[in-house]
Amino acid sequence: MQSEARSGRPVIGRPRSEGSREAILAAVRDLLLKGGYASLTFEGVAKRAGVSKATIYRWWRSKGELVLEASGDAIRIGLVPDTGDARADIVAAIDQLIGTFSNRLASIVIFAAITTAAEDRAMAQALRDRIIYPWRRSAAEALERAQERDELAHNDIVFLLDLIVGTVFQRTLVVKDPVVEGLKDNLMAIVLRRRDSGPTGSG
Amino acid sequence: MQSEARSGRPVIGRPRSEGSREAILAAVRDLLLKGGYASLTFEGVAKRAGVSKATIYRWWRSKGELVLEASGDAIRIGLVPDTGDARADIVAAIDQLIGTFSNRLASIVIFAAITTAAEDRAMAQALRDRIIYPWRRSAAEALERAQERDELAHNDIVFLLDLIVGTVFQRTLVVKDPVVEGLKDNLMAIVLRRRDSGPTGSG
Amino acid sequence: MQSEARSGRPVIGRPRSEGSREAILAAVRDLLLKGGYASLTFEGVAKRAGVSKATIYRWWRSKGELVLEASGDAIRIGLVPDTGDARADIVAAIDQLIGTFSNRLASIVIFAAITTAAEDRAMAQALRDRIIYPWRRSAAEALERAQERDELAHNDIVFLLDLIVGTVFQRTLVVKDPVVEGLKDNLMAIVLRRRDSGPTGSG
Amino acid sequence: MQSEARSGRPVIGRPRSEGSREAILAAVRDLLLKGGYASLTFEGVAKRAGVSKATIYRWWRSKGELVLEASGDAIRIGLVPDTGDARADIVAAIDQLIGTFSNRLASIVIFAAITTAAEDRAMAQALRDRIIYPWRRSAAEALERAQERDELAHNDIVFLLDLIVGTVFQRTLVVKDPVVEGLKDNLMAIVLRRRDSGPTGSG
DNA sequence: AATTAACCGAGACGGTACGTCAGGTCTTGAC
DNA sequence: GTCAAGACCTGACGTACCGTCTCGGTTAATT
Q1: Which range marks the domain in which residue D29 is found?
Q2: Minimal Cβ distance to C159: which of D116, D174, D186
C-alpha cells in the first residue's frame, strides 16, 4: 500500500527519512503488543517514535493503514507448497493458518482489521488482499490437486476454505484454545476422504 | 449483568425512570444501525435520548454493556428444540445461528463483542454467556442425540460446534456471502454421516 | 462581556468554577507581562492556569476577549470629575489617560486591541466601549463646561479629544518617552485659551 | 536592511533571481490586502509566488522585514518641501501624513510595525527609520522656519510633531474618520499663531 | 569549454499550537 | 435517591505553519 506509492514518488525534494519510517513502525508494533489496537493513538506513536505527528499523517492516512504496514510479515501467511503429496500440502496450509493466527501481533491486527473492515471498505479490501487471499488461492490449488485424485471428502472447495479458515479462527482467536494439535487432525479428517477407519476424538 | 445490579438497588427514594432506560436503549440501537459500533459515543446517545451522560454512566459502565443490553433479543439465539428427529434439530440449530448472524444489529454487536473481548475479559465473558453458550449447550445436546444414534460423521462434538460456528461466522460476517442456502446443506453433509450418496456442491 | 452572560445563565447544572476563572485570568496577565500579546497562546494559558483548553474556549472565544477581560481594571480609565474648576477637571482627564497608557499591562492590551481591531470588528468595538469611550464622554463634558466659560482655545471638541488621545498615545506608547511631565502642560496650553502669557517649552 | 546585505554578497556564483524577488513581494502585497498581517504566512507567500519557502527565508529573516520591504513606497512619506511659505510647507507635511495613513496597504503595514515593534527592537528601529523619521526631520525643519518668523503658536517643536502625528494617526487609523478635511485645518489652527480671528469648528 | 559557487524548487522533518470532540467525573437544584 | 443539566480535566483528534534541512538541478562569471 505504501511501498508502491513510495517508489512512484518524484525524485525531487528531500528524500523520505527511512529512520523515521522504521521508528514509527517499530513504535506501532510495541504499542500494539502493549495495549492493543483500541488504545493505539497517533499521538502515542509519535511520542514513542520521537517523530512529529505530521510525519505520520503524511504517510499513513488511518490507524488501519499504519497497523497493516507495521505488522508486515507477521500477518503474511506463507503460500502453500506443491510437493506432489496433496495431503501434506493441505496439512502445511492449515499449519500456516494456525501459525499466523497464533502469533500475538498478528491476532491483534486481524481483529483490528475485521472490526475496521465493518466500517471501512478500503481496509476490508486491504485485509483480504494481504492476509487471507494469497493463502486462500494457493490453498485452493492444493485442494484442487487433491480433488483431481479423488481424495477430497467434499466437492465445494470454496466452502472447504471457509470451513478451514472459520474453524481455525474460532478455535484460536475466539475460544482461544491453546491446544490446537487435535484441530489440525480433525480438520484433515473432515476435508479428506477417509481411507479406512474414521478419526477419533472426544468432545 | 445489569439486571442483577438493578434488582439490588434500594427500594427507597425516587425510582428509576423506565422512560429514560428505554430512550437510551432505543438511541443505542438507532445509532448502532446508523454508524456502527466505533462511532457510537456516550455523548451521542445522551443527546439523542434526551438524557444526561451521568444517567447512562450510572447504569452502564462501558459501551460494551450498553450495547449488549440494547441489542437485547436481536442477539439472543434461540434454544435448539428436541423433536426426536436429530437431523431436523441440527438443521434448526444452524438456521438459528445463520438467522442471528444475518441480522444487521446483531452482526454489529457480535463484531463489537469479539473485538472488545480481546481487551476486555468481562465483555468476552458476557458475550459467551449471552450469545453463544446457551445455543452451544442445546446444540451440543442435539449433536449428542445424533451421536447416540450413530448419525454423526465425527466424534468430537466440541470440534463440530467450533466448526459450525466458525464456518457460519466466516461466511456471513467476514466474507459476507449473502447466499447462505448452500451453507446449511454443506454443513449438514459434514456433520452427519452420509446415508446413501455424498453431497454435491460447486464452489 | 462575560459577567452579563454569566448572570444570564440558567441556574441548573453544575455552576461555573470561579477558581478556574480567576486562575485563567491571572495566567493571562502573567503571560502578557512576560511575553506580550503575540506569544500568548491558549495552550500556554491552560498549562499555567492548570486548566483544560476546553474550559477556556467554553468561556472566551478569542484571545482578544480573554485579554480584554483579564486586563480588567488596568485598562479602565477613570471618569473625569466635575469639581467646578474646568481646568482642574481637564488636567485630571489627561492624567488619567497618561496613567492608563503608562501601565505596562494596559499598554500591551491597548496595542493588541488596536492591532486586532484592524481585522476583528467585535474586538474594536469592545476596545472602544470599555477603554476609550467612557473616558471620552466624561472628558467631553469637562471640555463643554470649559467651553461654556469661554476657556477653550478651540471650538471643535471632538477634534480636541482626538488630539489629546492621539498625542498621549503617540508620546507614551509609540515614542515611549518616559518624561511625560511636559506633555500634560503642553496639552493644557493647546486646549485652553491662554490667560496672560503663553506657555513655554523646549523640544 | 536588505539592500546592504544584498550588496555585500559575493559576486561569483549564480546571481539572485530578481523574478523570484518581485514575485515574492507582489505576493506579500496581495495577501496583506486580502487578509491582513496576522493571516500572512511564509507558507502562503511561497505558494502564491510559486517559490520555495527556503528562498524566502534566505533573503528575509522575519515577517516584519518581508512586509516592510514589500510595502516599499506605499509607506514612504514624502519629504516636506521648502517653498519659502512656511504655512504652505506645513500644510504639505500634514497632507503627506494623511495621504500615507489613508493608504490601505500602508495602514496595514503601520499597524503591523507598531505591534511588532512592541516586541522586536530591530523592527521598531526599522519602522522609525523608514516611515516616520525622514518625514519628521524635514517637517521639523519646516516648523523651525515658521518659528523663526514667529508664526508658531507653540515653542516645543518635538511636542508639535508628536501632536500632529498622534492626532492624524488617531483620526485616520483608530477612529477611521473618512472625513479628514477639517482635520488639516484644525491642526493648522493649533500649530500656527492665529493671525486675526480664531479658528472655527463645531464639535 | 570547463569549472565552480551560489541559487533555486521541491518537499520531508520535528515542532508548537490550533480549535474540536469525547471520555469520565463532579456538583447543583428539581422532582 | 434519582434525574437533567452542564461544568470540568484529560487526552487525542487532524490541520496549519514554523523554521530547518536535504536533495537534484540551474545559472553565469571565472578560469
Answers
A1: 16-59
A2: D186
